[in-house]
Amino acid sequence: MPAWVSPVASYLAGGLRTTALLAVVSIVASVVVGILLGTLLTLPSRAVRAVVRVYVEIWRGLPIIIILFFIFFVLPIIGIRVDTFVAAAVGLSLWGSANMAEVVRGAVQSVPRGQAEAASALGFSWPSRMIHVILPQAARRALPPLIGLVVNLTQQTSLAAVIGLLDILEASQRSIERLTLAGGGGHAVPILTAVLLVFFIICLPLTLLSRWFERRLQ
């Protein structure tokens, strides 16, 4: 085994831990906020729906890389400074929560209207209808697109490298640069192949799981 493999593997492992933590934080925040916003999009109040709709359309409509640049480079101009990890987590969560809100809205609205009417006739308030009747049924419909969103967010964590976060992609790029300066080229292919395999191993099972759920629901 070449002498450079062990230190590079250790360095990439550190980047992988950062990538994994970023993915987990972004996914959890996106799901929690997205469920809340998606539920609010089904409220009878037009004012509330309009406010939430503005949030959803803004963050869904912007490329993630633009959101990251805005948070990390523009906010410091008005005195708001965050480190690279926080900037990446907030940016991914804004985009993810907006998309999750649409998933939840669609799933809730796909539940037959008679379910809500029956719960209302039994004296359930709107929050009780959502928690005990509508959301449990909507969850099954939302599962395949939710898994797809998890895969997408995991893949998009690689964009955090553009603002300098030492994730697995940035670690691989720095390793290639150091090895090239130390002893010439020829290291990019094995290092980037290792990064490719990591994302493939993580994302492929989730993709297959999403397809399985879609077939079961059909």
UniProtKB/TrEMBL annotation:
Location (main, coarse): membrane
Stretches assigned to the ABC transmembrane type-1 domain: 16-210
Protein localization: Cell membrane
Segments traversing the membrane: 20-41, 62-79, 189-209
InterPro entries named among the record's database cross-references: AA_ABC_transptr_permease_3TM, ArtM/GltK/GlnP/TcyL/YhdX-like, MetI-like, MetI-like_sf
Listed PROSITE patterns: ABC_TM1
UniProt-listed Gene3D superfamilies: MetI-like
Keywords, sorted A to Z: Amino-acid transport, Cell membrane, Membrane, Transmembrane, Transmembrane helix, Transport
A Pfam family per the record: BPD_transp_1
Entry membrane topology: Multi-pass membrane protein
Family: Belongs to the binding-protein-dependent transport system permease family. HisMQ subfamily.
Name this protein carries in UniProt: Amino acid ABC transporter permease
